[in-house]
Every structure is written in structure tokens, then in C-alpha cells.
Write a structure and sequence with these properties.
about 80% helix; about 0% strand; mainly alpha; about 375 residues; globular
């Protein structure tokens, strides 16, 4: 399931290292190209809001298979698109049906003991990290050799493979759990009701929204920065640099087990503070692909654990509401990602790397403050 999550998640991140090449191909500005990942993130948030709650009523397995098939179709549309509008539309529709990576953790959480929840959540998060890693490294290398469109043909091949394999990866439920009754609109309304009654989940979602905004802004701005005339690197260098994410594959499961021992909220505070220290190094060390490795290494070690610990705060609750709580959490997270996509490219276009670093510092500091506040208010919980 972690491999499946990796391949499906990767679709949103192929554009990160090649965003400059795509912009040049379609003849659009650095600021305007940011609309592609931004609309993808907004559509994903909308799709999660409207579609993910169905996971508490229908089989997670059936829904995953259906949505992955739809993703495969829209990925083909991106590979074939001849104009910027069609490319953006296909990317947006792809985001709308990218539901499987958020159904699978809820599916898995119902099949593990509570004392292994952090470990399993971390393992699935490693799938997300690996997908992002493959997308960013692979996209940069493939685009440098064969052009950016080849990246999306490779992505389509991966999606076709997942579409065929997923029915064998996810087993049918022998004893379906008790599911909520009522109309679809009532089910959708219950998402907001549950969110209001689980305010600690909302705080976790806002923290992760800030964390994800920082992540998207960092990589989109970094791709523009390194491939600028002043820096002179190629898109393959951006892809190779993204390989630093591999450290998260080793660190995140260990941090998940550590969070099981000391508590999710306390672990999140420590991770957020360490991440802030890394962000503070982006400006002084961001003028070389070699020196920028240092802050990237720091934020990639601890950044994913902010998400892992945030999910732990509500995935330990009763199974019947986990998917709907996940809905609120992921919607807010991707709203943050969409804002980060727009700001990352727009701020860089307006004030360069210095402005981007100031933006990242403000977002990271807000993450620390909220994490400390949440730990003090709900310290007695997970």
C-alpha cells in the first residue's frame, strides 16, 4: 500500500523541478505558471471535501480503485495537452480525483493495533515521501534528456500499472464495519459537525497546512531560483537536489516510533522547532546547490513528522469517523499547499530568493507557535 501511495502521490509533484521548462514551452510567465500546481491543490482539497467522506460509507477498496482509474485518464490528458489551458484543466481534474492516498491510511488504521498506529502512519507517509522524491528527481533528469512531456508519459505508465495492481494490493473487507446512514448531503454535513467537535484536529490541520505551504513554496521557488540566469543550473540539478528527500525515508519511521513513546503533540513541537532552525539557513546558504543541501537536509528530516504526528492526534479515535476527520485535515492541508504554490512563485517573481526566504521564515515560525499552543491545550491526549 505504501508503494501505491507513492505512485499516486507523485502526480502532483512532477511539475516542481520542471516548472520553468513548462512555462517556457507554453509561453507563460513565472508568476502565471504557479496557477497549475495551485489549481491542482485547490481541486484536490475540493475533491477530498466532496469525495473522501464516502470512505466512511462505502468500501475504501472500491473507492480507491475507481479514483485511481480516473487519475490514469487525466494523466494521459496532461501528456497529450497541446495548450496551456488544456494542460491546466487536466492537472486540475487530476487533483480532484487524487483521493486514494488519503483513503489508504484510514483503511490501514482499521487493521492495526493502537500501539502501532504511529509506526504504520509513518510507513505510509514514507510512501508519500518516496513518491515526491521519485517525481522530483525523475522529472528533472527525464526532462533534461527527453523534454518535459516525456515526464508525463512515464507518469501515465506508472499509473496504468497501479490501476492493474491495486485490486490485488487491497483486500476486501470480510466483515464490513458499521457505516453511517442517511443521505450524501447529511454525510457531507457531518464532516463540518465532527470538525467543530474535534477542535484539536482542526488545529493539527492548520499546523500541517502551514507546513505544506512552506514545502510547496520552497520547492517551486527553489526550482526557479536555481535555473535562473544568475544561478545557471539546469533542471536536472534541481532534480538531483530533490534527492535529499531520501533521508526522510529513513528518518520518518523512526520518528513515528519515537512519537508513539513520547506523545504526538510533544514530538510535533520538537520537530517544528528543528525545522525552523533549518529554514533560517535558507538565505545565507541558498546561493549554491551544494550549500543549500544543509537546510534542505534539516527540513526533510523533520518536516514529514509534523504531518505524521498531526494525523496521530485523530486516527486513534473511533474508526467510524476517521475518514471524515481525515477529510477536514487534508482539505485544510491542501488549501495551505495551494496558497504556498501561488505565494512561492509570485513572491519569487516579485522579490527573488530573499523575499522567498522571508516568507518561509514567517510560515515556519507560525507552525512552531501553533504547535506549542496545541501541546499546552491538549497535552493529556495522544
Amino acid at each position: 500500500m505504501a508503494v501505491t501511495v507513492a505512485i499516486v502521490t507523485a502526480n502532483a509533484y512532477y511539475i516542481h523541478p520542471i516548472i520553468g521548462e513548462v512555462a517556457a514551452s507554453f509561453g507563460v510567465s513565472d508568476a502565471r505558471i504557479g496557477i497549475v500546481p495551485a489549481l491542482n491543490q485547490l481541486a484536490l482539497a475540493l475533491g477530498i471535501l466532496l469525495l473522501l467522506p464516502l470512505g466512511d460509507r462505502y468500501s475504501n477498496r472500491t473507492l480507491c480503485i475507481a479514483f485511481v482509474c480516473a487519475q490514469c485518464v487525466f494523466m494521459l490528458g496532461m501528456a497529450l495537452a497541446k495548450g496551456f489551458a488544456l494542460f491546466t484543466l487536466a492537472s486540475t481534474l487530476l487533483g480532484f480525483v487524487t483521493i486514494a492516498p488519503y483513503l489508504i491510511p484510514a483503511y490501514a488504521s482499521k487493521r492495526v493495533a493502537p500501539d502501532r498506529l504511529g509506526q504504520v502512519t509513518a510507513l505510509l507517509t514514507v510512501g508519500v515521501i518516496f513518491g515526491i522524491l521519485v517525481a522530483r528527481v525523475g522529472a528533472g533528469v527525464v526532462a533534461e534528456q527527453f523534454g518535459w512531456r516525456a515526464v508525463y508519459w512515464c507518469a501515465f505508465a506508472f499509473m496504468a500499472s497501479v490501476t492493474l495492481a491495486l485490486p490485488m494490493v487491497m483486500r476486501s473487507e470480510r466483515t464490513p464495519p458499521k457505516r453511517p446512514k442517511g443521505s450524501y448531503l447529511a454525510l457531507l454535513a457531518s464532516v463540518f459537525t465532527l470538525a467543530r467537535t474535534h477542535r484539536d484536529m482542526l488545529v493539527s490541520a492548520v499546523i500541517q497546512g502551514l507546513n505544506f505551504a512552506s514545502f510547496t513554496a520552497t520547492w517551486l521557488a527553489l526550482a526557479l531560483h536555481l535555473t535562473s540566469d544568475a544561478m545557471g543550473y539546469g533542471v536536472d540539478a534541481v532534480g538531483y537536489l530533490a534527492g535529499i528527500s531520501a533521508i526522510s525515508i529513513l528518518s520518518t519511521p523512526r520518528i513515528g516510533r519515537w512519537a508513539d513513546r513520547i506523545g504526538a503533540r510533544r514530538a510535533r513541537v520538537i520537530a517544528a522547532i528543528v525545522q525552523l532552525c533549518g529554514v533560517m539557513l535558507f538565505y545565507p546558504l541558498g546561493w549554491s546547490a551544494w550549500t543549500v543541501l544543509i537546510p534542505l537536509l534539516i527540513v526533510n528530516i523533520v518536516g514529514p513528522s509534523v504531518d505524521v504526528t498531526g494525523r496521530m492526534t485523530f486516527l486513534a479515535l473511533e474508526p467510524a469517523i476517521r475518514t471524515r476527520l481525515t477529510t477536514s485535515y487534508i482539505v485544510i492541508m491542501f488549501l495551505g499547499g495551494a496558497i504556498g504554490s501561488v505565494l512561492g512563485t509570485a513572491v519569487y517573481d516579485w522579490s527573488g530568493w530573499a523575499g522567498t526566504c522571508a516568507l518561509l521564515l514567517g510560515v515556519s515560525l507560525s507552525t512552531v507557535i501553533l504547535s506549542i499552543w496545541a501541546e499546552r491545550n491538549w497535552a493529556s491526549r495522544v
